Amino acid sequence: MAPPEHETLVEAFQISAAHISAALSATLSDLQSSVHETTATYYAKVADTTTSVASNVAETKASLQAALEEKTKALQERADDATKEITLKLNEFTAQFQQTWTDASGAVCERYAAATKEVYDKAEAAKAQVQKTYEEGKLQLQHQYEAAFKAAEPAAAT
């Protein structure tokens, strides 16, 4: 049986792991909201711009291209921030418990190792989700950009 201080340490570790999991979920949720907001504002710009596209197609295209690049950059920055946030949480988590476990052994170490693997697996899954969310947002922006010019072609022809 593990000494009582190790059992308390395991409980603290598990609570910290739960906090990390919650932070990962919050980071992903925030990123998804940010992507949705960014694509919605670009969609609004596309809609506003295509109504007046007949007057100057080249100027409109340049304006939408600049907005597309700006929004794509904003998505990339937000995805980078989310990845940094995840890495920071993992580093804090590791630093908090690494020294404390040097004198633990047996079943306590096995539980620690299993819980640590679970936290790192969740972090890797969160990083993959960050990339997927970023790619989906970028794709939505590109589709809106292309749709604007498909809609603009008939307007410019009249």
UniProtKB/TrEMBL annotation:
Q: Which residues form a coiled coil?
A: 57-85
Q: Which UniProt keywords apply?
A: Coiled coil
The highest taxon in the source lineage is Eukaryota
Q: What is this protein called?
A: Uncharacterized protein
Organism encoding this protein: Achlya hypogyna (Oomycete)
